[in-house]
Amino acid sequence: TFAMPRDTIIPDTLVTAENIPEPFLPAFKRTGYAVKLGFGKKDRFVDLVYFKGKDDTASITYAQYATLIKRSETAGHDTVALDIKPQENAALGIVARGDFMKKVFLEIDGAVSIYTRDLLAKAYDNSDFAAADALKPFITVRSSTQLLAALITRIEYRHRSFKIGFGYDRITPDYETMAVWYFQNDVQRFTLSSAWQMLKKKMSVTAKIGLEKNNLLATLATTSTRTLALLNVFWMAGNNTHLNIFYSNHQQNVANERGTLADSLLLAQAVNVASASLHHRWGSLKRSHLLNIIGNYQSSRQHNDSEDAQNIHAFNLLPDYSITFEKAQLTLLTGFEYNQFLGSIRMVNYGPVIGVTQHFLKKKMTASLRANVSFNYFESNLAAVTGRAYFNFTYRLISRHLLKLRLIYLKNAAKKATMSGFSEMQGEIGYTVQF
C-alpha cells in the first residue's frame, strides 16, 4: 500500500492510470521520538531537546514505486513530485531564558540539525568526513547529509526608566528538522531596540533598527538586504489629552551577484509610514466631549527603470467630534473623512460622517447608527458618490452571553458614463459566549 494524504490508503492492485489522484504523493513510513531535559524555574531555565526521526526504507518497495511512476506517466501526470527518497534526521536544541542581577535579560533559542536527504546514498567514514565515526551514535553520515543550524538570541538591559536590547538571528539555508519544517531559512538578522519613559512616565519613546540579509552561503544569483527603522512617541499631555506619533522606514535592495539579470528586475524599494493621532476629552458630569484627529501617510518608491509606474503615495485624515449626554446615555458624533491615493492615477475621496449611539437598560443593550457620504474623484473628475450606513445592535442576555446584529447598506451613484452604479446590503447575526 501507499500512504496517502489524510491517511487515505489505496491498495496497489487498485491503482490504475484512471484513478491515480493528482497529486498522488506516496510516503515512507516514518517514526521518531524526542527527549526534553529542563533545569531551572518558570522565569529562569535551560531546556535541552533531542529529536530523532527516520524513514523505513522497506515501507515502499522498488516494484511498487516503479509501477506508480509508470501509471502516473500514463495518466499524463507530472512525476517530478514523485521523486521521493527515504530520509533521516537528528536534531539537538537548547532553549534558555532568564535575568541576571534583575537588570539583564537573556534569551537563547538554538538548534543543530543533521539531515540526511537520501538514506540510500553512500555512507561516509572518518576517511571521507572527519566526524563521521563520532556521529554514528546519532546518525550515519552519507553523501546526502547536511549539517544545518539555527540561532535566535536576545539580550536586554532593563533600567527603571529605560531599556535597550540587541538581537541576533541566523538560520542557515535549507534549515529543517522532521519535527518542525516551517522555519524561515537562509536569513541573518540584527536588531537594536530601546525604550524610554520620561516626564514622570507621561511620555514614552520606542525605537528600533534592524538589518536583514539572505544568501548566506553566496549560492544565489541575487542577495536581498532589508533595513528597518521605527520610532514611536506617546505623550500624555494631561489626564484627558493623549498624543501618539509613529514613523517607520523599510528599505529592500536586491543586489546582482552574477551579472546575469537586467537592472529592471533588481528590486530597490523604500516604504515610509507616518501617523499621528490626538485624543482630547473634556466636559462635566452631565455632558462629556471627545475630539479625535487621526492622520496617516504612506509612500512606496521603486528605484529602478519602472520607478514612475510603481511609486505610490497615500494620505488620509479622519477628524471627528462626539458629545455624550450621560443621563440619557446618548452619544452624537460628527466628523470628516479625506483619502488621497497617488500612483499611476490620482484618486481622492472625501465626505462627512455622522453617527448616533444609544444605550438602554443600564448599557445591557446598545444600538448605534453611523453613516457617511463620499465624493470620489479620478484625475480631478467626479466619478461617483458613495453613501454607506452601518447599524449595530448588541444585547447582553446574561453576564457572558451577547447577541449581536450588524447591517451595512451601500449605495454607489456613478457620475461617469463609463461607470455603472450599484447598491448592496449585508447582514450579520452573531451569538457570543465568553468563558
Which key phrases capture this entry?
435 residues; mainly beta; two-stranded antiparallel sheet; extended; disordered N terminus
The best one-word shape is extended
Rg, please?
Answer: 31 Å
Structural class: mainly beta
Number of strands: 21
Strand portion, in percent? over 45%
Write down the secondary-structure element order. EEEEHEEEEEEEEEEHEEEEEEE
- Give the helix proportion (percent range): under 10%
Summed up, the helix count is 2
For the biggest sheet, the summary is: 19 strands, antiparallel
Could you tell me how far the N terminus lies from the C terminus, measured between alpha carbons in angstroms? 46 Å
For the residues shown, what is the average pLDDT?
85
Low-confidence stretches: 1-18
How would you describe this protein?
The longest helix is centred in the first third of the chain and has 13 residues, at 62-74. This protein has helices spanning 62-74, 307-310, and strands spanning 2-3, 9-10, 30-41, 44-55, 88-100, 104-116, 145-158, 162-171, 187-198, 203-213, 222-238, 241-256, 268-283, 287-302, 312-325, 330-342, 346-360, 365-378, 381-398, 401-414, 422-433. The two termini are 46 Å apart. The chain has a 19-stranded antiparallel sheet. The chain is built from two helices and 21 strands. With 435 residues, it is mainly β. A hairpin with a 3-residue loop joins β13 and β14 (287-302). Mean pLDDT is 85; it is low at 1-18.
